[in-house]
Amino acid sequence: MKMVTTSVIASERSERSNLFKKIASSLRCATLLAMTLCSTAFAQPGIKDFSNFKKIPVLDNGRLKPLDTFARSLLTQFSGKDHYNNQQASQWLAALFFNRASTIDDKIFLINNPDIPQALGIAPQQDRRYTPAQLQGNFSLLLGLAQAASKIPEKERSLAENEMMRVFDNVSLYLDLSHYFTVIPSSQNENWLSLWEALSTDFSNVQTRRLLILWGDMASGYKQGNDVAFNKAVRLYINSVRLSLSKDDLKKVDKFPLELFYQASSPFTWAIMFYIFAFIFFVISFTSSKPLWYNLGLCSVMAGFIPHVLGLLMRIIIMSRPPVSSLYETFIFVGFITVLLGLAIEYYNRQWLGIITAAISGTALLFIANKYSAEGDTLKVLVAVLNSNFWLATHVTTITMGYAATCVGGLLGHIWLLQAVFRKDTQTLDKTYKTTLGILGVALTLTFLGTNLGGIWADQSWGRFWGWDPKENGALMIVLWTALLFHAKAGQMIGPRGLAVGAVIGMMVVMWAWFGVNLLSVGLHSYGFTSGIATSLIIYAAFEIIFILATTWYIFRKG
């Protein structure tokens, strides 16, 4: 009996001990989380090394990504820049997490419409950027205006109303992130939890408690300005998170160093810079016939092509799919194809034609891609309708290469018309004409093949090969227009001038198929819908029409 009683007492002591440990652990977590989530005027951040902090795995918009990618896309979404003053994105995000008071006067919110700050009672700023303190003080008014705008049908909203909703969403996200952050893997399912969710719903799990404690240790190290303590907590946190991940997620985390290098190296920025240099050398060549400028121009295009290719390859490895699933990616990929075609033209032509084609198309397309990168993270999870690497690698890449070849043909059409205006010799005009003809042949082949592959994919996905969907019609328009040019040439209905004009119009057809049909917001290709580009398309079309009329009139007048 004594032995039994002793055993029971020992068991009760053990349970009480475990209970006290849990209570102590809970109090520690609550204290550390309070330090983490509450702003403090006494924080003295002095952390210099954020290299480990950047690697923390987070779940955002369905994708497991390094915290640095999240921080960059967040700041880009807020302010149009992926950094703040002299701070890297991760450094600024750490300040938001662990010392929110230090970010309250940071000018991070970009407001493009000057009517919005006036409506909120805020003095308009020349740089169009405002602080959280300014917008928080008028949050109730901002909420009311955003709610009123949200009740208006999307197609009927003004630019100011859309901008009001965007600003409200950004301010709300800023406030939420200072209190909630999806950073802890759940022990019960594949979902991830915010700090408060983990504390309230999953705290009984030992692994979750450990992650909460380590996150609190990060806050403590940051508050004290202790680099060693902060980074030790970060490393232990990352190691603990890895223990909770599946094999597939671990493979994604293993690619984080490559993604961090991709983000830091900005390969497409380097590509743009070298393409611009190539164009500058082309302009300088008009003042001097020295072969130096030609060699520099060719080397610049090749130097830009290298980071362009490497950037695409890194995206392919990171996302494990072809880089053609969004407008941002298609611009980059089309730019890559146009530069490749430009280098191929120069290999056979050797008279600047391929260099200038590559320089102009590469620069223009990457600049347009930058516009779409301002929306945030460009490495997004695929929408369901595109979730097929086989069809991405066949139909989408083929039709996109067809777009690229047609655009190159259109650019060559511009060049031929300008050469004719400025009285280039017949031999030069003939070379440009034959090159244009060859490129249009490539465009017709690729668009025809890509359209048929798209029909096969549609048959497998939607049960019909063709449904006169706007996007399908757009692809068909390119095929028919390019085929019409070849028929007109074969029937001697057009000559070099007619082909050049037709190539320019073909480029306009591509723009309609690429973007214009998306403005209709109808059809099964809902993943391609976009807005806000109608004005740009109209301006582009007007410019092309004026260009065609002016050049053809001048050529005709001069005989």
Strand residue percentage: under 5%
Rg estimate, integer Å: 29 Å
- Low-pLDDT runs: 1-33, 35-43
Whole-Å distance between the termini?
121 Å
Order of helices and strands: HEEHEEHEHEHHHEEHHHHHHHHHHHHHH
Structural class by sheet pairing and helices: mainly alpha
What is the topology, as strand order, of the major beta sheet? 1-2
Helix share, percent? 55-70%
Mean pLDDT rating: 84
What is the subunit organization of this protein? single chain
What is the general shape?
A: elongated
| Biggest sheet character | 2 strands, antiparallel
> So how many helices?
21
> Could you tell me the number of beta strands?
8
Describe the structure.
With 559 residues, the protein is mainly alpha-helical. Helices cover 69% and strands 4% of the residues. The protein has 21 helices and eight strands. It has helices at residues 2-37, 67-79, 89-98, 115-119, 132-136, 139-150, 159-177, 195-201, 206-224, 227-243, 247-254, 256-265, 267-284, 291-319, 327-349, 353-373, 389-421, 426-462, 470-490, 496-514, 534-558; strands at 57-60, 63-66, 83-84, 87-88, 109-110, 129-130, 184-185, 192-193. A two-stranded antiparallel ribbon has the order 1-2. Strands 3-4 form a two-stranded antiparallel sheet. A two-stranded antiparallel ribbon has the order 5-6. Strand 1 and strand 2 form a beta hairpin. The longest helix is centred in the last third of the chain and has 37 residues, at 426-462. The radius of gyration is 29 Å and the shape is elongated. Residues 1-33 and 35-43 have low confidence and may be disordered.
